[in-house]
Amino acid sequence: MVQVRRALLEMNNIEAVLLKQRSDEASAELQDTIYAMIIGFGSGISLLFLSYVAVNREFALRKKAEEAVLDYVKQLGNAMESTLQAVARVVEAHDPYTAGHELRVGQISADIAREMGWSEEKCNSLQLIGLVHDIGKMSIPSEILSKPGKLSAMEFELVKTHAEQGYQILKNVEFPLSIAEIIREHHERMDGSGYPQGLKGEKILIESAYLL
Q1: Which of 49, 125, 169, 207 has a CA between 20 and 30 Å from the CA of residue 31?
Q2: Model pTM greater than 0.85?
Q3: What's the CA gap between 149 and 178, in Å, rounded?
Q4: What does the pLDDT profile of the chain (212 residues) look like in tens digits?
Q5: Residue 53, burial from CB neighbour count under 10 angstroms (0-12, 13-18, 19+)
Q6: Are the C-beta atoms of residues 208 and 195 closer than 8 Å to each other?
Q7: How far is the C-alpha of 143 from the C-alpha of 99, rounded, in Å?
């Protein structure tokens, strides 16, 4: 009887050992699984972080590039304005009788455009065009432009060519508005009595109509 009890006890001990071994194996497997999950989660976090850094870096570089472009465009705009102002002074020197005329035309034209609801950028562009709208007069002899008396019919016809000459001078210049066409049409009239093409009504560029 004692031997039977010992055998049962040993079997119970063996079973307990086996259960503990299985428990330990399961625990180790669970630990490995949890560790793998942690490693995987950590890798995911790392990838997310790296992606975040890359996106922010790209955004910063793009913003910096955009700022550089805007700065360059501003510099070009300032250079263009300075150039047109210099040209306007040359035209005035060639025709001192109308000194200040180009400046006033530019200011008035821009004011009209503002009243019509144009953007400030377009108004400023039109004002700059006003500064050189008579650039074609550089092709007219200064003796005719500054003649104190009445011009002869031939002299007046020669003066009228300044609109077309202005177009020829500026036709290859890149500008926010169609500067050459606007200058060519700034003496056209709604009734078709203007020059050089005798345009009328809606065939005249609205910008040219504002260049009084």
Answers
A1: 49
A2: no
A3: 35
A4: 544 444 444 555 545 444 455 555 555 565 566 555 555 555 555 555 556 656 666 666 677 666 665 564 556 556 677 888 888 888 888 887 777 888 899 999 999 999 999 999 999 999 999 999 999 999 999 889 888 889 999 999 999 999 999 999 999 988 888 999 999 999 999 999 999 999 999 999 999 999 87
A5: exposed
A6: no
A7: 15
- Cβ atoms within 10 Å, residue 206: 13
Amino acid at 1: M
How far apart are the C-alpha atoms of 146 and 140, rounded to whole Å?
Answer: 10
How many whole angstroms separate alpha carbon 97 and alpha carbon 100? 9
Yes or no: say if 126 and 175 are a contact pair by the CB < 8 Å rule.
Answer: no
Spell out the long-range contacts of 189-195 with Cβ–Cβ below 8 A and sequence spacing 24 or more: 195/160, 195/163
Q: Extract long-range pairs of 153-160: CB within 8 Å, 24+ residues apart.
A: 160/187, 160/195, 160/196
Alpha helices in the chain (DSSP H): 2-94, 101-115, 120-131, 142-145, 153-160, 162-170, 179-184, 206-210
Contact yes or no for 81/128 (Cβ under 8 A) = yes
Domain boundaries of the chain, sorted by first residue: 95-212
Per the CB < 8 A criterion, the answer to whether 102 and 88 are in contact is: yes
